[in-house]
């Protein structure tokens, strides 16, 4: 007989879960596994709300397992470590991002690219190695293998740093991998949301000149004055786009809605790279001719491995990069999801778990 979420493991836990594709979250009692010899258990202090959480609670990607406790931008303080844990100790600040498991033996894992492991285990709503379903950070506690636990830099704030565990590595990794991290390069960022605003900060920290590309003029002030972008293009303004043709070394495209790629390819120099990190639900149209004529590339990138994620956190701490956040109590989470669906947040919600999650 299948055990209930509350009894399948020995350690009681409490969080907020969605039970069906309405996506409405409410208080939820469940359980976490006992601390294994390589496990780190920690009290959750803050958890960011990612656009993926919204897709997942509504099963918009088709693989949600209910009940679902979302959250993969999790930071907290270690309360217990297994006998063989070496990376952290009780009292340390730590983070867990999008992954809590991988095979650890494939080519990707051997190259510190657990994010491309075919047997990767997502932090929530995925089958773990013991057959149970993983639960994320909208909860009072977390337990994970030390390999998937990140040391938190001392001078990086917990609340505004939490979103870097997804938005930070999602933008840092492609800038590094595709060689768009050299000082003096000209980088475009499409979309100024949770991912886009962090992409601007990362590219600027690498010494790039940054142009934000958006459908509306509304965000120009924020992009240039607050986030430090060097210029701003309205993608619907053909004159502006034409004037900027052939000016960018690379583009990080963070938009998760269907949108035309052709105008973006025109902005690239020869050998330029358009990297997709947003995930539209429907296929996009791609014309091949502009790729051939400029030897241009269209690529994609998903988060990063654990080694690179730690590197990103240390880089962010060194360069004072953090997300622009609105900290909320847990009982505001459904309203936050509604606002996120309308892009009504600058730029990332973060749940104050420790001070507002109370077991009822």
Give a brief description:
This protein has helices at 51-57, 107-110, 158-161, 167-177, 194-205, 220-226, 238-243, 262-267, 289-294, 306-318, 333-341, 353-356, and strands at 11-18, 25-32, 39-49, 74-81, 93-96, 99-101, 121-122, 141-145, 150-151, 186-190, 209-214, 231-234, 248-253, 268-276, 297-300, 325-328, 348-352.
Q: Could you explain how this protein is built, in words?
A:
It is a single chain. By secondary structure, the chain is α/β, with parallel strands linked by helices. 25% of the residues lie in helices and 26% in strands. It contains twelve helices and 17 strands. The strands form four sheets. Strands 3, 4, 5, 8, 9, 16 and 17 form a seven-stranded mixed β-sheet that branches. A six-stranded parallel β-sheet has the order 12-11-10-13-14-15. Helix 8 (262-267) links the parallel strand 13 and strand 14. Helix 4 crosses helix 5 and helix 4 (167-177) crosses helix 10 (306-318). It is globular. The two termini are 27 Å apart. The model has no long low-confidence stretch (mean pLDDT 96).
Biggest sheet descriptor: 7 strands, mixed
Overall geometry? globular
Number of strands: 17
Helix share, percent: 10-25%
On the 0 to 100 scale, the average pLDDT is 96
Low-confidence stretches: none
């Amino acid at each position: 007989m299948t055990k209930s979420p509350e009894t399948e493991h020995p350690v009681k836990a409490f969080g907020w879960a969605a039970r069906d594709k309405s996506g409405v979250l409410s208080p939820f009692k469940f359980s976490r596994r006992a601390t294994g010899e390589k496990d780190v258990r920690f009290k959750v202090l803050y958890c960011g709300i990612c656009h993926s959480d919204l897709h997942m609670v509504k099963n918009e990607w088709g693989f949600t397992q209910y009940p679902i406790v979302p959250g993969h931008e999790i930071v907290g303080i270690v309360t217990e470590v297994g006998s063989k844990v070496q990376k952290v100790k009780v009292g340390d600040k730590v983070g867990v991002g999008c992954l809590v498991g991988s095979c650890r033996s494939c080519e990707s894992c051997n190259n510190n690219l657990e994010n491309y492991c075919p047997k990767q285990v997502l932090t929530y709503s995925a089958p773990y190695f013991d057959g149970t379903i993983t639960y994320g950070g909208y909860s009072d506690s977390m337990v994970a293998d030390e390999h998937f636990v990140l040391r938190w830099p001392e001078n990086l704030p917990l609340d505004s740093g939490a979103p870097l565990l997804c938005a930070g590595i999602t933008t840092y990794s492609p800038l590094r991998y595709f060689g768009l991290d050299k000082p003096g390069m000209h980088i475009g960022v499409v979309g100024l949301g949770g991912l886009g605003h962090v992409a601007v900060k990362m590219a600027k920290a690498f010494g790039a000149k940054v142009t934000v590309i958006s459908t509306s003029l509304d965000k120009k002030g924020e992009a240039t004055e607050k986030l430090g972008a060097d210029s701003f293009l309205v993608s619907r303004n053909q004159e502006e786009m034409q004037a900027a043709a052939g000016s960018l070394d690379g583009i990080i495209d963070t938009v998760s809605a269907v949108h035309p790629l052709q105008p973006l390819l025109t902005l690239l120099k020869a050998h330029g790279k358009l990297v997709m990190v947003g995930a539209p639900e429907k296929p996009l149209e791609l014309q091949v001719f502009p790729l051939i004529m400029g030897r241009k590339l269209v690529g994609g990138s998903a988060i990063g491995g654990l080694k690179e994620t730690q590197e990103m956190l240390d880089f962010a701490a060194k360069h004072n990069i953090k997300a622009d956040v609105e900290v909320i109590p847990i009982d505001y989470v459904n309203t936050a999801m509604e606002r996120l669906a309308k892009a009504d947040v600058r730029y990332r919600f973060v749940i104050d778990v420790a001070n507002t999650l109370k077991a009822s």
